[in-house]
Amino acid sequence: MPDPARPSTETVPRLPPLNALRAFDAVARHRSFRGASEELRVSPQAVSQQIRHLEEALGVMLFIRRARAVDPTEAALVLARHVRAGLGEFAEGVRQVSRSPVRARININVSPYFASHFLLARIGAFRATLPGIDLRLTTMVEMPEFDRDDIDASVQWGYGEWRGVEAVRLVSDPKVICATPAIAARIGSAADLAHEVLLEPVRDGSFWAPVLAFLGVDTPLGAARMVFHEAATTRQATLEGLGVGLLSEAHAREDIAAGKLVAPLGDALVDLPQSQVPGFYLVLPRRRHPPAPVLAFRNWILAQDWSAPARV
User: Fold this and answer.
1) Contact 180, 261 (CB under 8 A)
2) How confident is the model over 125-134, as pLDDT tens digits?
3) I want to staple 252 with a disulfide (CB 3.0 to 4.6 A). Which of 2, 114, 176, 195 is the partner?
4) In the chain, which ranges are continuous DSSP H helix?
5) How many CA atoms lie within 13 A of 148 on its CB side?
6) What predicted TM-score, i.e. pTM, was given to this entire model?
């Protein structure tokens, strides 16, 4: 009698050759046959042939060939995530049974604000727990593509709604409406915000919408707004009097105490529903067996109290 827990061979698709999958993984990461060939130490023609055989076996086009690069199709983007995860599982299994040394490198991407105000003053404590670790830290605003960018862990600003990843909130980042004294003098109520230039701290232009809704301002956002790449630029634009900014509490307190800015509506945004308050999240790719240094970093960062910045 067949074991119901064991999949039938009739329902399991026949896997392509491992060499073809390795070539596909390399091309997907490099977006180039030449880059993949240099990594695999074979000719670009050999890589191209492996991809062609894989496309024939799957019955789908995986890459759109261009003059100096290739673009993955939707099918390739889906397949790449699974192939990369599978190769990682293979490597971990080989490492365990062959007693290979544990990987001693971890690549971390952190938002610039979190890095400068929270992490850099404390990261030495993590390194002390793993003295031989090769820690590589980059600061980017954008969410990385973990496999393509070779990133193991990231700390991102947002609302924790990213798909296909593990996201755990480390600390909330409530905002305060701030303006120079001259601009603040024109703001007697929340409704007056509809007549001011609103400074967006995120590129998708969506941060002010829930704020205005919470304050009861139903005027839709028009052209009177400026969008910036990250929080530091938004703060500087607010100080320069270019409009009304949404600043993190730490920055707001500092600038208000110095007399440079005013909070014309007080700290009303602190009462926003938690789901509408942004924060900084630890973001990890979903992997069944993450490398030991990545697991150590995850455990360390989740054990910290990030409620107060290390520096302002």
Assistant:
1) yes
2) 998 888 888 8
3) 176
4) 18-30, 33-40, 44-58, 74-98, 112-114, 123-129, 146-149, 181-184, 208-214, 231-239, 249-257, 292-303
5) 14
6) 0.63
At 274, the amino acid letter reads Q
Are 283 and 167 in contact, with CB atoms under 8 Å apart? yes
Q: Which residues pair with 139 in a beta bridge?
A: 110
Contact 158, 113 (CB under 8 A): no
C-alpha to C-alpha distance for 216 and 229, rounded to whole angstroms: 27
Of the candidates 268, 269, 266, 255, which has an alpha carbon nearest to the alpha carbon of residue 180?
255
Handedness of CA 120, 126, 132, 137 (dihedral sign): negative
CA distance 94 to 86: 12
What does the pLDDT look like over 7-44, one tens digit per residue? 554 555 678 888 999 999 999 988 999 889 988 989 98
Residue of 211, 203, 209 lying closest to 177 (CA atoms): 211
What's the gap between Cα 180 and its chain centre? 32
| Cα-based distances in Å from 230 to 17, 60, 214, 253, 274 | 45, 39, 23, 19, 22
Tokens of 167: 């996201």
Tokens 């709604």 belong to residue: 161
Distance spanning both ends of the chain, measured CA to CA: 68
**What span, in angstroms and rounded, lies between the C-alpha atoms of 237 and 241?**
6
Among 81, 60, 70, smallest CA distance to 52 is for 60
Tokens of 271: 């009462």
Q: Name the DSSP letter for residue 262.
A: B
Long-range contacts of 117-125 (CB under 8 A, 24+ apart): 117/250, 117/309, 117/310, 117/311, 117/312, 118/171, 118/280, 118/306, 118/309, 118/310, 119/155, 119/310, 120/310, 121/310, 121/311, 122/304, 122/310, 125/300
Neighbours of 26 (CB within 10 A): 21
The position carrying tokens 């060499």 is 19
The amino acid at residue 257 is A
Q: To the nearest 10°, the Cα dihedral for 257, 263, 264, 268?
A: -130
